Amino acid sequence: MAEQKGEISLIDPSQLLRPEPVFNDKPIEAFRDYTVDDSDPVRERVRKTYYDMHTNVTVELVKQKREKWLKFNTFKSTIKDALIKLNELVDESDPDTDLPNIVHAFQTAERIRVDHPDDDWFHLTGLIHDLGKVMAFYGEPQWCVVGDTFPVGCKWAKSIVYGPESFKDNPDTYNPKYNIEYGMYEPHCGLDNLLISWSHDEYMYQFLKHNKSKIPEKGLYMIRYHSLYPWHAGGDYRHLTNEKDEQILQWVLEFNKYDLYTKSTKVPDIEALWPYYEKLIDKYIPGVCEW
Ligand code: INS
């Protein structure tokens, strides 16, 4: 494992060239395994989080959460202090890591830094992409904060984890306005015009706009849609997306490999890395922010 001064290489680059790609000793196909097994506490935790989400996330609920959170009057904090809170958050929807989310933040950022040394905005995007999960410390259950996202107000896509069956107790499943292919949308209206299940992605995107961050548009969109797996990995919703979304897709896919495949038990030296990232915070989103 290559170690460089001041930064940690999480992946041996030669591994990327092998026919069977392996990241951090775990083969790619071993990630995102949502097999149901109620005798396994982790699998059961993940399944329950998604079933709670898929039961409760409706058009109405998403509108209510947007109304509440997009006022940005819940608390005030610097980015660093908010990140430190993620020490206390283990993502209950994630089958690939049991470590606090702050570790995942640094793992993602550091791996991006290895591959894209000159794009400091990209390093910071990696560090803060999941920071919207702080909502869990202000009254939101994890099912409303973490996990993959999906549009509401139209038919549930097949590629959503646990499938359309997991929405059997969701009232929108039986609403004829919503349970059809286009639902409440126009063909090719574009991702930005869809109402996406409420989660850390949309909150963090809107937070960065509200607090006038200088992160480029690319980074903002990586954050906004990184959990929209049924679109960027499942290939669904192409009847709703437009040309601009093709560009966004390239950005999200570039980000996604770092987000997903860096999840491992290797913990970066967070204390040693703070000074570098504090500089980036000062450059792109300084001071006390409104959350
Ligand atoms: C990721 C992804 C994972 C989910 C995480 C989320 O972007 O969608 O599947 O478990 O909560 O941050």
From TrEMBL:
<comment type="pathway">
    <text>Polyol metabolism; myo-inositol degradation into D-glucuronate; D-glucuronate from myo-inositol: step 1/1.</text>
</comment>
<dbReference type="GO" id="GO:0005737">
    <property type="term" value="C:cytoplasm"/>
</dbReference>
<feature type="binding site">
    <location>
        <position position="104"/>
    </location>
    <ligand>
        <name>Fe cation</name>
    </ligand>
</feature>
<feature type="binding site">
    <location>
        <begin position="147"/>
        <end position="148"/>
    </location>
    <ligand>
        <name>substrate</name>
    </ligand>
</feature>
<keyword id="KW-0597">Phosphoprotein</keyword>
<feature type="binding site">
    <location>
        <begin position="91"/>
        <end position="93"/>
    </location>
    <ligand>
        <name>substrate</name>
    </ligand>
</feature>
<feature type="binding site">
    <location>
        <position position="259"/>
    </location>
    <ligand>
        <name>Fe cation</name>
    </ligand>
</feature>
<feature type="modified residue" description="Phosphoserine">
    <location>
        <position position="39"/>
    </location>
</feature>
<dbReference type="GO" id="GO:0005506">
    <property type="term" value="F:iron ion binding"/>
</dbReference>
<dbReference type="Pfam" id="PF05153">
    <property type="entry name" value="MIOX"/>
</dbReference>
<keyword id="KW-0479">Metal-binding</keyword>
<feature type="binding site">
    <location>
        <position position="129"/>
    </location>
    <ligand>
        <name>Fe cation</name>
    </ligand>
</feature>
<feature type="binding site">
    <location>
        <begin position="226"/>
        <end position="227"/>
    </location>
    <ligand>
        <name>substrate</name>
    </ligand>
</feature>
<dbReference type="GO" id="GO:0019310">
    <property type="term" value="P:inositol catabolic process"/>
</dbReference>
<keyword id="KW-0963">Cytoplasm</keyword>
<feature type="binding site">
    <location>
        <position position="32"/>
    </location>
    <ligand>
        <name>substrate</name>
    </ligand>
</feature>
<feature type="binding site">
    <location>
        <position position="133"/>
    </location>
    <ligand>
        <name>substrate</name>
    </ligand>
</feature>
<protein>
    <recommendedName>
        <fullName>Inositol oxygenase</fullName>
        <ecNumber>1.13.99.1</ecNumber>
    </recommendedName>
</protein>
<keyword id="KW-0560">Oxidoreductase</keyword>
<comment type="similarity">
    <text>Belongs to the myo-inositol oxygenase family.</text>
</comment>
<feature type="binding site">
    <location>
        <position position="200"/>
    </location>
    <ligand>
        <name>Fe cation</name>
    </ligand>
</feature>
<feature type="binding site">
    <location>
        <position position="130"/>
    </location>
    <ligand>
        <name>Fe cation</name>
    </ligand>
</feature>
<dbReference type="InterPro" id="IPR007828">
    <property type="entry name" value="Inositol_oxygenase"/>
</dbReference>
<feature type="binding site">
    <location>
        <position position="226"/>
    </location>
    <ligand>
        <name>Fe cation</name>
    </ligand>
</feature>
<keyword id="KW-0408">Iron</keyword>
<dbReference type="GO" id="GO:0050113">
    <property type="term" value="F:inositol oxygenase activity"/>
</dbReference>
